[in-house]
Amino acid sequence: MAAVCVYPDMVEVAAPLLAGTGIKVASVATAFPSGRAALDVKLADVKSAVAAGADEVDMVIDRGAFLSGRYGAVYDEIVAVRAACSGAHLKVILETGELGTLDNVRRASWLAMLAGADFIKTSTGKVAPAATLPVTLVMLEAVRDWRVATGGTAGEATAGEGTAGEGTAGGQMVGVKPAGGIRTTKDAIRFIVTVHETAGDDWLSARYFRIGASSLLNDLLMQRDRMATGRYSGADYVTVD
User: Are 111 and 74 in contact (CB under 8 A)?
Assistant: First the structure.
């Protein structure tokens, strides 16, 4: 597990409980999940989460601005949120289910990376469709191409140098997180294979690739138990949401 994601007011509860575990505290912010608030409210949301101990901030882009072609406004907002993070990693949620086309997914991915995203994330999990293989493929192609555009080469082994979004000898690596709707271990394997075949092995770590696992975790526990016992647990042993 890479991180536990909570609302800003729960960061102060989660941070001491996870201290020393290696698991990060991520906080949704910027008026999650709608993103419908004034910029000063969004930035206050971010600063509050970081001050309480959040290691990572998950922001949502202004889809209304994006879909009306006001890309500069979307870019400026991401830049402002990045500055408010004060060193916390920034995951930019595109809410791909509302973007309409794969071309828009590509454009939003590139816009987020230009503005300084450490991770690009498919969804809030509140809108369907959420994480799908086609949109994840497009986002993986975007981060692969971004690495090349910033001085790297496809497939170059530099994972471990620098951090996501920071320059390395092999270009800048930005993480990808599909989230929402990935409910089974078998589905997760399909996404992992897509990472391997599209972006390459350098992305196969929690540093650069994660899966939203609030529903997936239960199935993973069931699969592990089956491997140990040869049979699936009953529903009263593992809660399946």
Answer: yes
Cβ contacts of 173 within 8 Å, gap of 6 or more? 143, 147, 152, 158, 159, 162, 164, 165, 202, 203, 208
Residue appearing with tokens 């993480």: 175
| pLDDT range class, residue 236, cuts 50, 70, 90 | low
How far is residue 1 from each of residues 21, 25, 66, 131, measured CA to CA in Å? 10, 11, 32, 19
Tokens of 109: 């991915």
Share of the chain above pLDDT 70, in %: 90
Q: Is the backbone peptide bond immediately before 129 cis, with ω within 30 degrees of 0?
A: yes
Q: Domains in the chain and their CATH numbers?
A: 3-229 (3.20.20.70)
Rounded to an integer, what distance in angstroms lies between the CA atom of residue 14 and that of residue 9?
10
Q: Which residues are catalytic?
A: 58, 121, 177
Sign of CA dihedral 94, 98, 101, 107: negative
Q: Residue 196 pLDDT more than 50?
A: yes
By CB atoms closer than 10 A (0-12, 13-18, 19+), residue 33 is middle
Can you give the pTM of this predicted structure? Answer: 0.87
